[in-house]
Design brief:
InterPro entries: DUF2857
Order of helices and strands: HHHHHHHHHH
Low-confidence stretches: none
Strand content: under 5%
Protein name: DUF2857 domain-containing protein
Pfam family, one: DUF2857
Organism: Serratia symbiotica
Helix content: over 70%
């Protein structure tokens, strides 16, 4: 970082800290390692003194990179990007408000706003159910994927792939998969009850 850029950064940070001190918040100053005496001096800076500091080639900052936080922030940004891409893909495939709330915690107003931004028009009424051939194809895809529950993002990925591959509504796919999983759970409970009784 050049001397000019560093002095600009110094001015910006000192101005921000000065505003914090004026409003009674000294925690940011303390977190930067400033002593009480330095905080008091900062609070008494005049505009002329602040201007002089901004023109100075000497910086009061040592710029270092927190490597752990850098990678943490980078990974969080990448995960958020993947999440947003998944949200857009689910909406494009006809994901209902209930589906979007289940997998992404989105409120109806957030879903509506996102749809408007993407230019997606929704049809009112019930989601069209799958035909028997579509049902068979979907069942085959679900079994091959080896999923036992629709609750994870991994399961949603399988459902989205099936919806794309067979030109199906994601909501119709999700509804059907949820039904199969509920039925399978009921069968397992019944089997356990029968074994206990014998």
């Amino acid at each position: 970082m050049s001397h000019h850029n560093l002095s600009q950064a110094t001015t910006a940070i000192l101005s921000s800290l000065l505003m914090d001190v004026k409003s009674g918040n000294i925690r940011r100053c303390e977190s930067l390692g400033m002593s009480v005496e330095e905080i008091r001096a900062l609070s008494q800076l005049s505009l002329d003194e602040l201007h002089y500091i901004s023109q100075s080639h000497v910086s009061v900052l040592d710029v270092t990179l927190n490597h752990e936080n850098f990678w943490l922030m980078l990974n969080q940004a990448r995960n958020e990007q993947k999440r947003m891409l998944m949200i857009d893909r689910a909406l494009e495939l006809g994901g209902s408000m209930e589906l979007m709330e289940t997998y992404f915690g989105m409120s109806p107003s957030e879903v509506s706003a996102r749809r408007r931004m993407m230019g997606i028009e929704t049809r009112q009424g019930r989601t069209q159910s799958l035909s028997e051939p579509q049902d068979t194809l979907l069942w085959s895809e679900w079994k091959v994927a080896g999923m036992s529950s629709p609750d994870s993002h991994q399961a949603l990925e399988v459902m989205m792939l099936a919806a794309e591959q067979y030109s199906l509504s994601l909501t119709a796919v999700w509804t059907r998969v949820c039904l199969w999983c509920r039925e399978a759970k009921t069968v397992r409970k019944t089997d356990v009850s029968v074994r206990k009784a014998t």
